[in-house]
Predict the structure of EAL domain-containing protein.
Amino acid sequence: MILQSPSRLGLSNNPGSSLLRVLVAVAIVIAASVLAAVGALRPIENGLQDLGFAMRSTEASGQVAVVEMDAASLAAIRQWPWDRTHYARVVDRLDRAGARTIAFDVDFSARSNPADDARFARSLEKASANIVLPVFGQQASAADQRQLDALPIPLLREHVLLGSVSVQPDPTGIVRDMPIGTFNSDAPRPSLSAQLAQRSGVADQPFPIDFAIDPGSLPRHSFIAVERGEFDAGAFAGKDVVIGATAIEMGDRYAVPRHGILPGLIVQALAAETLLDGIPNRVGWPVLLLPAFGLVWLILGARHRRQIVLRTGGAVVVTLTVLHFGAILANQIFAVAPSVLVILASAIVRWAALVHADFEQTRMIDPETGMPNRRAFEKEIVNGSHTRVIAAMIDGFETIRMVVEDSEIGSLFGRIEDRLCAAGCGERIYRVDDRVVAWTTALEPFEIEGQLQGLAAVMRHPLEITGRRIDARLAFGIADGREISDAAHAASQALRSGSCFAYHEHAEKLVLDQQLSLMGELDEGIRRGELEVLYQPKLDLRSDRITSAEALIRWNHPTRGYLRPDIFIPLAEEADRIDDLTLFVLRRAIEDLDTWCSAGHVMKVAVNVSAVLISSPAFAVRLEHILREEGVPRERVTLEITESAAIIDFEAARSALEAIRALGVSISMDDYGTGQSTLTYLKGLPLSELKIDRSFVQYAHRDQGDALLVSSTVELAHQMGLEVVAEGIEDADCLAFLRSIGCDFAQGYHIAKPMSAEDLLELVRISPPLSSRKAA
């Protein structure tokens, strides 16, 4: 029995495993560093920061008050834009109430009524509070990358401060940061939030907004209420007030972490609240990655799963605690995603190593018998020097299983193993399949044959299993090289033929003989009427009637039963017999076509043609002869060429098809979409029809990708003057989809299964349009 207990990924404490442990830790840290450096961990970092906001949810300080241009204000004033006298009255009210700063997030870059502008300017001039009016930049147009800066009109900005209200969402469309200032009109401008909080910094230097602050805790007042003086006298004393739109109708809304969608005014207020405690400092991910390396070392040294869970959980808690308290106590925003990643990655690696160690002892053992299994045998073959494999297959194992209890199967194989080992088969016998054991040998073939004959004689004696005598005859397979499956296949062939043993080469010869025999019977099968032609109808989606059919060959072999075409057609191609078979189908199809037409039903018929026949001059001559002989209207005959089949000489194939097309026969490309030269075939071959393979059609009504492929193929074919047949229609929804995209024909089990020529004639004769049949 081969049992392995290697030390993988530091499972033991020897120096080699310690070195491997260091290398794994370093590799994990390097991988995380690379991912962090290229920005791949940004979504994880954002998620952890959002978790941090939720963990330390706080109330606003109350220093920043919000005056909202809300729905109530819009309803009261009833016009837009508002007269600037409204803003003047609000400034007067707030100034008299003792506001420290009054900041507007409202665009004043355009002139309005001169009297209103003058009234607003007088209020700004006489106000004791600091007044901040907004500036912002925006792109000129989609095609013009220039930044156009908007400033308040000169009359209004003479006695005020300016504050940038530009907001730049991240690539995912979420606002996480706000700039300390921006460059507008070639000058640095503090941001509105910086003006409110009275903080200075570097233009275009972003700072993270603290979304742990609850927006609902901000002091909020309606614009119209402030204009009318309907507020407590001390509500604004010493406060920094920001005025702007919050009504949904006025837009200016942004996606933010934790809170979803917020008005831009509230985002500005939260940014100002953030700056009241100072500008938050971002601490880069390398700072925490070094101590994380120590945590990784501890996790990789865990000796059992419980230790992994405890150490990993503790490491993650420590990392998130640094994130949490760093933000609360020191206004430091730590990047922790790489550290968390290396902690979790090391836990996964260590867990996998322990799982591997647990399974290493059992994965090589067959649980039912305790014998070494196929994996162990494959390892033995790779590492061993033996040149041959022998497999022994138990005859009638299914019957034995019905007699022997499951718990006794181990005893059965144990007895077999004892006899094989006693006969000198080797040190180890492996159970490589349900009823197959195997071993390796260095014996020469003539020595093996004698040994196996002796084993067969030994195995003729019944085995004693818990008081029962069980017959377990063995058949042996011999394979050169290292392929277990070859030896098992040879044993199976020996068992079927009643032989004691078989070589793998001999098994292949048996298969070859069978194939040659089958081809030898083909002509006789045609003569005896064993080969029959069935027809699968095609529904014309314009008339909703069956107007054509595809001819399909079937072989009802007297001893082998019904043989699928994919069994004997490839053999016919290899044996150079496919032309006779194809012409047989063609002649039969033309005869049946003539019968249908004589009965008053104008039909078309399609016959499959192998790619190997396309450029065959002899086939073309015989085809023309049949067409002339039968006298059927040639426009009712279609030859279907499989697009997935390889056309080796494309130019020769094109010439041959053009000659066939000149006879009046239509050419269809079958199984369209499964080959590798689709566009070349469409462009270069004289086609009249395209058949889309069922693999694309079957679920096109449910799968958006398949729907796009099918609809675009139909459109392309129509533009090229081709009709389109869709294969594989199995339900009404798929058929409805094909109708909706203008497909010409449909074929599949939902329309009808393959049937005889007589049944098809009856179907066409008595059937109303398909839509009527489904309705009935």
About this structure: The chain has 28 helices and 31 strands.
